[in-house]
Amino acid sequence: MEFRLLxxxxxxxxxxxxxxxxxxxxELKPPELLSAAFDTGAYFARGLFDENGAMLAYAYFxxxxxxxxLDYFAVDRSLRGQGVGSKVLEFIKEMPELSARKLLxxxxxxxxxxxxxxxxxxxxxxxxxxxxxxxxxxxxSRVFGVDYRLLCPQPISKEDALRGIGELYKSLLPTPIFEKxxxxx
Length: 185
Prior knowledge:
The chain is of the alpha+beta class. The chain has helices at 8-22, 31-40, 84-93, 116-131, 158-172, 175-181; strands at residues 2-5, 43-49, 55-64, 67-75, 102-108, 135-143, 146-152, 182-184.
């Protein structure tokens, strides 16, 4: 297996073929925004490929300053529950791009679930990360109306997590859009 960087075209193709099925529409950033951030070097993606070249999982990242956000992460639906996600988490922790940065993860907050099925998914997702050695920082955010818990594999304070996520979104969004759509708590 190989956990390699995706080209810009692979990143965009994956957006159209997989991401729109793997994530709710409210969580998807416009592909034009990802493309523009990719062009500046602030956005990249990696895929886990098998020996035949099939993508088993993917992870999208955004970086600014001392912080990096795991923006999207999904495993092929047919492979979920088989340890592929845990393997990708280990690859992520070893990425050279992460050597001088703190990695932040936004995970939908179960306290704001729409119903019990949604709550089960959110709790299961958080449990996956906690079992993978990623800790809840205690920081929370609301981005474009979606409430998140902020997680991090490295030791980090709640204040640093909030500073980091703020820094990331301020570098991605124009100030008026940031101020209207990003709440840090």
